[in-house]
Amino acid sequence: MLIIHKEIIKNYKNLYKTKEGYDVIIYAGEEPNIKEFHTHSLILKTQSKFFKRAFMEDIKKNNGCFTLNSRISPDIFEIILSYMYCVNIDLTKLQSREVLNLLLSSEELELQSLVKYIQETLDRDHRDFIIKNILEIIELTYQKEFLEKLWNFCLQQICYESDCLFKSTKFLTFNPSILEIILKRDDFYVSNEIVIWEILLKWACGQNPVIQQDINKWNKDEFTMMEKRLSRFIQLIRFYHIPSEDFHLKVYPFKEILPNNLINNVFTYHIVPNSKLDIDIQPQRSGYVWNQSACGSKLVIEDNGRVVSANNYDMQSVRAKMTLENKDIFEWDVIIEKECSYAWVGICASENFNYEIFAGSQPTGWVLGSVGFTCSNYNSNNKTYDSYCPSFGDGAKITVHLDMNKRTCAFTVNGVKYPEVSNWNNLPSKLYPVVSLCYPGCFQIQPH
């Protein structure tokens, strides 16, 4: 069967080369770079739904041939035709931009198998290019069914690293429909929700016609325009998670373009925190992803920040992006996907913390180990180990319960909740989730 298969491919390759019996002429490209291709309608219809529809639209022959026009560049079209005839393609000689153009053209012609293969190649071999051009690529893949894999990668990357959106020179011209999708997501992380409000004001002011950012200089028409530009986004901003001082200084001055009930409810929420408001308060955006810039040099972060693994036997640490402060209760899960000799889960402060070593040996680290002991070195020259729970290993799920009102911490291990750690009763006012691991450890973090 393999010999027969090779013979068939060889025959199609020869047909593509000789053009014998062609009945289609395609003019590919745009002036001044247009090239004429001679092809066979049967091959095109068999391989592509796009061409199948095209030939059903009663295209008349001229001098015995169908005539079609395509804006796809001749070089890209040559590669696509070679694939359609020979089911063979080599992407190794193409630059990243050429691979992307080939993907977009293949999607246009509905070559689903080729689209899948190119997306996998981009994800594997051209990831730096995607990240560098992420706003352009997410707009190119928007609402294109066959490009869902690349779209999802870009979306996850933006949620993981919001700076690639907010600090881009292309942000002011970014597609508002995609921006709306991003702001709806719980995993779109910023250090403080006020960042989203401030950057949206900048975006709205930067639309045409441009409006200066000083609200004291706005006229009536500019107030109306700003209210219209922001209207689709207001409900997506999680105002209740903006610290009261920031809300008063940076949001309240814009009360004329905000719903009255929003202002009143937020003030009530902060002044009387235990009041029962008849509103749906969205959850705080999750920063429970590992932070590449606060990570041991021999640890590897994958899966858009959710998974960290060790490739060396040296014990190292990594903290999450989520900042744990203000008078809130924070809960998150760490799943031990692969156990190492000692697995440690807990919290740390950023001051004088060394990610190249074990968290529990430092004055600003508090962790629970897989042997069932807690470990800390706070205000002490010696590590303190205390028995806390049974040991745990592969597949274990540890939930951390951090109460920043009382500055205490407790853990749930595999569904069993244990009491607050007795000697962790004077924790700092600003903390981060942290783990320490060595090879072959692999830990996943997620909101509880």
Task: Describe this entry's structure for a reader.
The relative contact order is 0.07. This protein has 15 helices and 17 strands. It has 448 residues and is an alpha+beta fold. It has helices spanning 2-18, 41-47, 49-56, 74-86, 96-108, 112-125, 127-132, 134-141, 148-160, 163-166, 176-183, 194-205, 220-234, 244-251, 260-271, and strands at residues 24-30, 33-39, 66-70, 290-295, 299-302, 307-310, 316-320, 329-338, 344-348, 365-369, 373-376, 384-387, 397-403, 408-413, 416-417, 432-437, 442-447. Helix 1 packs antiparallel against helix 4 (74-86) and helix 12 (194-205) crosses helix 13 (220-234). The strands form three sheets. The protein has a seven-stranded antiparallel β-sheet, with no helix packed on it. The chain has a seven-stranded antiparallel β-sheet with strand order 5-6-17-8-13-14-15, with no helix packed on it. 35% of the residues lie in helices and 21% in strands. It has three domains: 2-143, 2-Layer Sandwich (Potassium Channel Kv1.1, Chain A); 166-271, Alpha Horseshoe (Serine Threonine Protein Phosphatase 5, Tetratricopeptide repeat), CATH 1.25.40.420; 290-447, Sandwich (Jelly Rolls), CATH 2.60.120.920. Strand 1 (24-30) and strand 2 (33-39) form a beta hairpin.
